[in-house]
Structure formats: structure tokens, C-alpha cells
Specification:
Blueprint lengths: L17 H7 L1 E4 L5 H20 L8 E3 L16 E4 L7 H7 L2 H11 L3 E9 L8 E4 L1 H5 L8 E6 L10 E3 L31 E2 L7 E4 L5 E3 L10 E8 L13
Antiparallel strand pairs: 1-9, 2-3, 3-4, 4-11, 5-10, 6-9, 6-11, 7-8, 7-10
Bound molecules: 2-oxoglutaric acid.
2-oxoglutaric acid binds next to β10 and β11.
Length: 252
């Protein structure tokens, strides 16, 4: 595994390195939320879990469950644990507001060089014991029906490291929009044989810090082996000139 990782600079010095983003396919960024704001974001995450658990049928279209992603060896006690809530903003004013926080959207606006629309929004919970996300490219597995003019922002709600399943990326794997073949019989996971493990970089970030990345970037996260959650709010944006192109993500 590569040790050359970008480190987020303190926010007052943060300058969006647009060239670096396009070269490496991702950029780390400092926290733009205060510690008090972070407390409110975590409380909102708890509220949404309660809301969805109170009416899982009513929220069925927005929920995925850990039990559907964990293998037998890791399933015990996880049958009623939510893996992901998506979409989010139609049930959360707090996360609607965060999606347009200048500290979140300004770097993406700088990278695209134009205004933005929100394309996708989700809360990945990765609670203790939570499942992995195998190696994949978001555009190839999930967004082929849409534009590839997309930038994703991960905002961690908890400190993230290798023990609780931080995001891991392969810098430069987005270049030339290369599509890596799926694992045989799979329409999500890239064939692990294609991953050069010597190039993998973990995004070891503290709560509130962010990673922006390209829809072709190879990325992965492991099972949460730790005792702490690794929650992340994930927003994806497209250039505003394309309009609101993913409105049908909202459950009717
Ligand atoms: O939450 C994670 O660790 C990974 C999420 C991810 O890769 C995705 O939602 O496409």
C-alpha cells in the first residue's frame, strides 16, 4: 500500500488544488463544519435512523440493510442494522443545508469552473460490524444512465481509519475514463485482479474532513472491524447547466 497520502491542510490555508484533483482523481479537504455543527450532524444521523426504524416499510425504498451485504461469518446481530439511507435531503433539513454549505460546494465549483446541482445524497452508516464496499467505479456500476460530469464529496461524521473502514482509493485510476472489468458474474465489483495494491491510498481523515473524487476513480472500503461508527454523508454534484437530472431518485 502506498504511503504517499495527501493531508488536509488547516482550513484557513486551504486552497483548492484543481490540477491535483484532475491529475489524481481526488482531493482531501479540511473540515468546514465546527465541532458544534458536527455534534448536530451526528444527532441528525441518529434521528434519521430512528425515523426509518419506526417505519421501515414506509422508508423501504431508501434503506439498505447490513444483513443483505454481510457474509454468514459477520451477520450475527446485524439483521436490523441499516447500512445506508438514500436519498436523504427529502427527510432532512439539516442535510439539505449541508449540501449547499459554501465550504462543501465552493471547492467543487472551483474544480468544475461552474455552478452545481445536487445529483445524489446519502448517509452511509458503517456502524461497528458494518459491511465493506468492494472495489468499484461509481460511473460504471451505478451511473451509466447519467452524465459522467460528476464530483462526489464524502464528509466523514467520525474519525476514519483502517480499523473502521475508511475509504481507500487508487490515485490516477480515473485517467482517460478507463473502465476496469467487473469481477466475473458481478455488475458492481471491479475484478480484484485489476487493483495494483501497491498504489492504494487510504483516506485517513478526522471527523468533518472531506474527500472529493471523480466518478471513474477506483475506490473501496473495508468492513468496520472497530467499535466506533464510520458514518459519512455523501453528496454528488453535476454542473448546473445539465439541470436537475436525477430527481427520480426520490421515493414517490
Ligand atoms: O461508504 C463507503 O465506505 C463507500 C461508499 C461508496 O463507495 C459508494 O457509496 O459508492
Amino acid at each position: 500500500m502506498s504511503t504517499s497520502i495527501q493531508s488536509p491542510t488547516p482550513s484557513q490555508d486551504f486552497e483548492v488544488d484543481v490540477d491535483r484533483y484532475w491529475r489524481e482523481g481526488y482531493l482531501l479537504a479540511p473540515a468546514v463544519v465546527t465541532p458544534e455543527h458536527l455534534v448536530r450532524l451526528r444527532a441528525e444521523s441518529d434521528r434519521l435512523i430512528e425515523l426509518c426504524m419506526a417505519d421501515p416499510q414506509g422508508h423501504a425504498n431508501r434503506l439498505t440493510w447490513e444483513a443483505d451485504y454481510l457474509d454468514e461469518a459477520h451477520k450475527a446481530g446485524m439483521d436490523k442494522v441499516i447500512r445506508k439511507i438514500e436519498p436523504l435531503i427529502d427527510i432532512s433539513l439539516v442535510f439539505t443545508e449541508l449540501a449547499s454549505h459554501p465550504g462543501v460546494v465552493d471547492p467543487i465549483r472551483a474544480i468544475f469552473g461552474e455552478d452545481l446541482e445536487l445529483f445524489e445524497d446519502k448517509l452511509n452508516l458503517k456502524l461497528p460490524g458494518g459491511s465493506s464496499y468492494p472495489w468499484h467505479q461509481d460511473w460504471n456500476c451505478c451511473w451509466r444512465a447519467h452524465t459522467d460530469e460528476l464530483i462526489t464529496c464524502f464528509i466523514y461524521l467520525d474519525d476514519a481509519d483502517m480499523s473502521n473502514g475508511c475509504l481507500q482509493v487508487v490515485p490516477g485510476s480515473h485517467l482517460n475514463k478507463q473502465i476496469y472489468p467487473f469481477k466475473p458474474g458481478n455488475r458492481f465489483e471491479v475484478d480484484p485482479a485489476c487493483i495494483d495494491t501497491s498504489k492504494v491510498v487510504p483516506a485517513l481523515l478526522r471527523a468533518g474532513e472531506m474527500i472529493f473524487f471523480d466518478p471513474y476513480l477506483l475506490h473501496y472500503s473495508d468492513l468496520n472491524h472497530g467499535s466506533m461508527p464510520r458514518r459519512a454523508i455523501i453528496y454528488t454534484y453535476n454542473p448546473a447547466r445539465l439541470g436537475k437530472i436525477n430527481e427520480n431518485r426520490f421515493p414517490h
